[in-house]
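Morning, I've got a small favour to ask if you have a moment. It would help a lot if you went through both lines with me. Thanks so much in advance, here it is.

***
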Amino acid sequence: MKKNYTSVLILLGGASILGGLALKNIFEYSSVVGFGLGTVFLLFSAFFAGKNLDNPQSQ
């Protein structure tokens, strides 16, 4: 089974940014936490995308 984490991590990154913006009236630092988590998810997504480019056998 092919494990493609890139698309899942992109969706999680977007969802965490949107969640942080949606909760900004409830929690004081939710936008900072949301953007931080979103950045981490998008960096991991870029890492796995680069890893898939190096390994053409998994396609």
Notes: Residues 5-52 form one domain. The mean pLDDT is 87.
